[in-house]
# Entry
Amino acid sequence: MGNEKNTAGELEWRVRVEDGSSEVLKPEIRWFHRVWLGLVGFFLKLVLRVWKFLKKAWDVAVDDPRKVIHCLKVGLALSVVSLFYYMRPLYQGVGGNAMWAIMTVVVVFEHTVGATLAKCINRGAGTFLAGSLGVGVNWVAGHSREFEPIILGASVFFLASAATFSRFIPSVKQRFDYGAMIFILTFSLVSVSGYRVDKLLDLAQQRLSTIAIGASMCIIITMLVCPIWAGQDLHVLVTRNMDKLANSLDGCVAEYFEDSTSPSDKEEESSKKLQGYKCVLNSKATEESLANFAIWEPAHGRFSFRHPWVQYLKVGAAMRNCGYCIEALNGCIAINSETQAPQFVKNHLSEVCMRLSSHSSNVLKELAQMTKSMKKSTKIDFAIGEMNGAVLDLQDALKSLPTQLTPPPQTNTAVLAPTAVPLIEVAPLVTVASLLIEIASRVEGVFASVDELSRLANFKAVNDKKPKQNQIISRPSVDNQGQETVKALQEV
Amino acid sequence: MGNEKNTAGELEWRVRVEDGSSEVLKPEIRWFHRVWLGLVGFFLKLVLRVWKFLKKAWDVAVDDPRKVIHCLKVGLALSVVSLFYYMRPLYQGVGGNAMWAIMTVVVVFEHTVGATLAKCINRGAGTFLAGSLGVGVNWVAGHSREFEPIILGASVFFLASAATFSRFIPSVKQRFDYGAMIFILTFSLVSVSGYRVDKLLDLAQQRLSTIAIGASMCIIITMLVCPIWAGQDLHVLVTRNMDKLANSLDGCVAEYFEDSTSPSDKEEESSKKLQGYKCVLNSKATEESLANFAIWEPAHGRFSFRHPWVQYLKVGAAMRNCGYCIEALNGCIAINSETQAPQFVKNHLSEVCMRLSSHSSNVLKELAQMTKSMKKSTKIDFAIGEMNGAVLDLQDALKSLPTQLTPPPQTNTAVLAPTAVPLIEVAPLVTVASLLIEIASRVEGVFASVDELSRLANFKAVNDKKPKQNQIISRPSVDNQGQETVKALQEV
# Structure
């Protein structure tokens, strides 16, 4: 029936049949036409899909050209390892086990140096541990002739179960997940092939050496050709997120208090800035995996081997904590834009609210700068002081807005009607103010975590000219030093 | 010098040497003692660490016994596959390639059915595609004698680079990451060993069949022995999170308005309930991976093959959106507990605030129940209505609290001093009220996403007795049906 409706507007051929009624004449060519159209449509859709996919791939490449370089590095590593096969002298040395070198390269080569190192070390350690254990179990099984298959089977069952279970324990999962898998794999292979292959030790030694060749190839290429450091990435991610947080805080409050007189293209840019806090809320998983890999990395750039990467996670958590509040603020501003507060109240509070938000975002920007440069900031204490001052100012402003609330028994408010404002009209403003105060206290949390980071990572002091106050404050430490030198002289 | 200070309180033996000064006599036994103590301390620490590790492992096992079952399943699968080695007839059939069956089991066997299926399908498809492509390239290379190594090397370089790059494209990464890796691995191995091994097709066929054996073993064991379904897990996670969200909303508001007269052990439990929203905020990554695996699963339990798993992610996002606001509410309540609002204002608002929060959490609980049972709820519209009514009531209550705000020029507030309350004292209450209104609007967002889910997943209508109103409302649809049957009869 539906079909009839669809073709309502079309012409059709009818033929009169013997009983008097007419029948629709459906030409065969129509079927052919339909199939043809279907095929064309299908191919067009396919081309469109492929085109979209390619466009997406192109965007990925443009967005981060290092990914393209990584791919070429993988290709290079595989080609170099293949040489072991193509060049006869090398082939005769390593033998058919060269397969393991290729497998190692494919499985171990990761995007960042830290991830590659982690996998290499895990693979090496897992293979070595399981290999020696497997040889041991084989030796034991070999000395008890008839029980050999039972001992081997039972050892595979129990060790595989135990190693699989260890992968569920958070501390193992975080660092040694891959190693545990390789342990199971190697142990099963060794204990099973030990039953067939007699030259087990030779096999194990060859396999280890080919894995070492593959792994060292990966490490050399990943560290020498345009290295991508997980630690560096984490550092950049956290500082960029701090800037984004500052920008969205600024933008969010400015949007509420200022009249929007800016042109529309500028507005689009600012709304993009405003949404920056969402990046902060969503980057937990990325931060964790980067920190996990960064731990394995050697010293690089400005980062030492034992750089406190875990502290970056705490900074990230503090920022997210702050981001939740900005999210709520954003929501409250959007929903309350209908019920505007009276202008005179807005005027009274807007200046001090804007000041608090700009001081808070200043603190965040200063912290971002401090983390970026890895130098102690001389301005940060001052910025924090200003922020706290602004909090007090806002609280004072709220206090100085005396509110006449009439408790139930008293009903003489009628005479004050001309200036009475229901609480609901000031509610949005008060909420914004409260949330700003809360945000300021959470910004202090971010400060505390960055301060801890600066202590753990030994951020350098800035040695250009300091303001006078700081010199006065630092004098006692000079005195202390003087006393210490005197002491040292006496002791000598 | 520091060393001397440390031992300041201790006795020491001194001996007078030739130049008249005295020298400390350090008995050798002391060193031995120290080393002994150090060793004992080291071992105690080691034992303590191992003990802690075992305790953690025990907690993991107790927390989710299915994990232990999974480990036994892995052991079982490996033991069964090892049989191919131990039993001579089977071994002669499959040959040394049985190694690939073991490798497949170790690599492919995952915790959930969906993850295992995804890896099996990826591994099979990747191996088949790369294998046939590798054989093709080998054929071409074989026909151009002197260029053979160049063609093979170049093909490995380019295909490996391209496949590695594809792993960065989000849609590929999400579903086919493992397949792309296997593709690179197989292609490299085939094109490289093709240069040495002549019976390439035989090898490829054998390898595919052993992989098929390993994979089918995994699939059979994972689906038949206590299967753990990713979809089921996702369903439970989302509904449990919804309940947690409702509980923390309730607890948070009750804590603020009620006097805490409950005993301390009950308080601890309630504070644990209160922190439930944090689970919601942190479960994004888990939800995404579960949804990713659930897509691969066949119909199981109450879930059909094409169950709208992606919609669960949207429900999760809506819940997180709600959770951000609860986080902010929690923060505001904690920070503002010092500046208490005057009692009469609190009394005026507390009842309506509590009502709104309990209606909001009722809606959440009803939605959780609806998702849990996968049946349409008859009460949900009523609950939403009540919540919206409570929002209006709260807004009315705020309106009916007339606030006397004095604009700057007017300064006659002095006479009203006895009842004047500065805005700052009501700020926390107003903030709580605003945030509750915002939360209610976000709960509606959760409702919208669950409603969409119920539509997509064809939740059944409840067929037990409905309230009268619903019957009246549903009458037109009965009429419609009647009309349709009449129509159908006419048409026949």
